[in-house]
Amino acid sequence: MSLNVIDLIKGQLGPALISQASSQFGESESGISKAIGGLLPAVVGGLANNANNPGVLDAITNASSSGILGNLLGGTSNNSIVSSLLSSIFGDKVGGLVNSIATFAGISNNTSSSLLNLVTGATVGSIGKYAADNNLDKSGISSLLSDQKGIISTLLPAGLSLASLNIGDWAKGYSFDNDKIKVTSHEDPKVEVTRSTTPTGTHIDNNDGGGSIWKWLLPLLLLLAAGYFLWKQCNKTETTTTTVSENTVAVSPSDSVSVTTTTTKVDENIDLNGVALKGYKDGMEDKMITFLKTDGYKNAADDNALKSTWYDFDHVNFKLGSSTELEAGSQGQLDNLVAILKAFPDAKIKIGGYTDKTGNEAANVKLSQARADYIKAALEKAGVGAQVLGAEGYGSKFATVDATASDAERAIDRKMSVRFAK
Questions:
Q1: Is pLDDT larger for residue 251 or for residue 375?
Q2: Residues with Cβ < 8 Å from 273, sequence gap 6 or more?
Q3: CB-hemisphere CA count at 13 Å for 52?
Q4: How far is CA 217 from the centre of its chain?
Q5: Whose CA is closest to 115, among 190, 24, 185, 192?
Q6: 198: which DSSP letter?
Q7: Inter-axis angle of helices 94-105 and 80-90, to 10 degrees?
Q8: Is the pTM of this model over 0.90?
Q9: Are 419 and 311 in contact (CB under 8 A)?
């Protein structure tokens, strides 16, 4: 059986990276995992469909020395190899793919786009490394990619098909050898189901005579595999958070099994005096505008009446460890804040930066202060600096989650916020 390149890549996209991505993008780990499970077969299928494309082969050949695998979360968004590859294999279908995965996984389009870059980087980097380690020339890489055409459909998670991904007519031409496929469920990296492989020399009778054991054995094996997967899912204890307003609430209705209840955030139009801003219902923009329209700011006696209410940014995130580089999609919410301040020129605000309880506190305060200053400077550059009365980094002073908790649980304490001030 030919090499399944998914096996080369999945080591790069394990639980640790999913947890980091969840924290970085402000999405649930289950949503990140689900999106990666859909994107990975699509990207591999796109490469397989372009197995003889010189640009694709050049990108894979050069990827081994590019260091792309060493910085998947921070180095793929603006990577020329990744952007060139996506253009080559999907063309104008990139937007459709991003939207389909966002809808399927219950994440924002910005996160879906960032994950597409990440998965593409992991894929081309892993294949490039394998080619370099095994002395594969471009002809060998082309053959390796072509061999993947028989397995792509079977790797898609339940509820997703190539046709649903809006990636063009090329998906219709795939043929699938379902008797010789090792199938990995990418919604749960810990669950692996292996289909039966036809023994050498065994003839599978596809006639209507009914004499072949495989006519009933293969469906039975598939049924048993599906039952095993469902059993594993039902016995897996998982705590998932439900985002309600600004607070995260753990839902555990059973002593033995935690039931996953996730409120998916979906961008919608938020009315700003007749102008539509893209934001979440009950998100930062919605709450700030509602407060201003009810004259809550005008009626506040002094700063003390305002200082207890902070509005967390839903989309503004900095790259890991950085105070000068925002994640993709962050600028849109900063633009929304500028629009709100311009619509209410009497309103004044203050910026706050926060970290979790891990690490050195002096360093945490320094980082959170630098990030708060960065946002303040961005607002000043946009022409609303007079309405920003200050920016302060609080480090982990107001963190609520213990330092020993998981990275995903601590993500709630790593945020940027804004409050009204006088």
A1: 375
A2: 343
A3: 0
A4: 39
A5: 24
A6: P
A7: 100
A8: no
A9: yes
Report the alpha-carbon distance of residue 73 to residue 164 in Å, rounded: 27
Instruction: Provide mean pLDDT across the span 232-256.
Output: 43
Q: ∠ at Cα 227 (218, 157), nearest 5°?
A: 85
**d(C-alpha 297, C-alpha 419), whole Å:** 11
The CB-side HSE value for 238 (13 A sphere, CA atoms) comes to: 17
183: nearest Cα among 172, 194, 173, 175: 194
372, 362, 350, 349: which is closest to 397 by C-alpha? 362
Q: Answer for the pair 315, 277: CB distance below 8 angstroms, yes or no.
A: no
| Alpha-carbon distance values, 286 to 267, 354, 384 (Å) | 11, 22, 19
Look up residue 64 and give its two tokens. Answer: 């081994």
CB 326 within 8 A of CB 316: yes
Cβ(97)–Cβ(113) below 8 Å: no
* Buried residues in 101-135 as b, exposed as e (16+ CB within 10 A): bbebbbbbbbbbbbbbbbbbbbbbbbbbbbbeeee
pLDDT tens digits, residue range 319-359? 877 888 888 878 889 999 999 999 999 999 999 999 999 98
Each residue's pLDDT tens digit, 60-102: 888 766 667 666 776 555 667 787 788 877 877 788 888 888 8
* Contact indicator for 379, 275 with CB cutoff of 8 Å: no
Distance CA 245, CA 223 (A): 42
